[in-house]
């Protein structure tokens, strides 16, 4: 097992590098835009570069009296909120039917933060919330047999199938290794913003 995983990591690194070079060469102009396209976005890599830059300038940005001092303070607020939640659940684990031990504050804080900055991904959050409520609340509480039997295997199947589909479409349609062959324009694939989230900088 260890040998298989090691070989996969080594082999996968070369594949990832080759795919990355191909994408950059063929989609450079799109990756440099603010909002990317329905298929490609340089947002993640831009954010990594931005984080490296701003933390290098931490004294000028995050120090007391500087513009973004709330960022390190926010880390302390999050830490204290989780500690307070732990203390409350120790003495009063339930409020009515709500079990406070089931409330995961770090996860709530993490994904709430997406709304503030992740313009290329925040459009999917409503769907994510609906699915989360349906699966984790409705199925888990009212259809436990279905939840136990199917939720994990269906999630794994959808995840694996989605990744495989993206891989195939990236090469066959989206222009990873050559010119893109876009799908026809229709109600589910509008010409301007496929995810129906306009680029704020264009307004």
TrEMBL record:
Offer one example of a GO biological process linked to this entry.
protein transport
List GO molecular-function terms, semicolon-separated.
oligopeptide transmembrane transporter activity
> What are the transmembrane regions?
6-24, 68-88, 119-139, 151-174
Name the InterPro entries on file. Oligpept_transpt, OPT
- Signal peptide location in the record? none
- Provide the alphabetized UniProt keywords: Membrane, Peptide transport, Protein transport, Transmembrane, Transmembrane helix, Transport
Q: What is its main location?
A: membrane
Any idea where this protein resides? Answer: Membrane
| One Pfam entry name | OPT
Annotated membrane topology: Multi-pass membrane protein
Q: Which residues form a coiled coil?
A: none
Family matches, as PANTHER family: ISP4 LIKE PROTEIN
Specify the protein name: OPT superfamily oligopeptide transporter
């Amino acid at each position: 097992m260890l040998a298989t995983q090691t070989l996969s990591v080594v082999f996968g690194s070369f594949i990832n590098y080759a795919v990355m070079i191909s994408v950059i060469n063929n989609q450079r102009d799109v990756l440099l835009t603010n909002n990317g396209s329905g298929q490609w976005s340089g947002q993640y890599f831009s954010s990594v570069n931005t984080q490296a830059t701003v933390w290098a300038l931490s004294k000028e940005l995050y120090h007391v009296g500087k513009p973004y001092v709330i960022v390190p303070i926010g880390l302390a607020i999050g830490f204290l909120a989780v500690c307070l939640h732990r203390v409350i659940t120790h003495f009063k684990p339930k409020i009515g039917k709500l079990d406070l031990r089931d409330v995961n504050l770090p996860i709530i804080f993490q994904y709430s933060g997406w709304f503030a900055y992740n313009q290329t991904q925040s459009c999917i959050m409503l769907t994510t919330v609906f699915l989360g409520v349906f699966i984790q609340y409705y199925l888990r509480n009212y259809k436990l047999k279905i939840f136990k039997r199917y939720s994990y295997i269906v999630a794994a199947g959808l995840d694996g199938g989605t990744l495989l589909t993206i891989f195939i479409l990236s090469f066959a349609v989206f222009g990873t290794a050559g010119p893109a062959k876009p799908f026809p324009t229709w109600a589910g694939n509008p010409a301007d913003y496929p995810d129906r989230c306009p680029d704020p900088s264009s307004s």
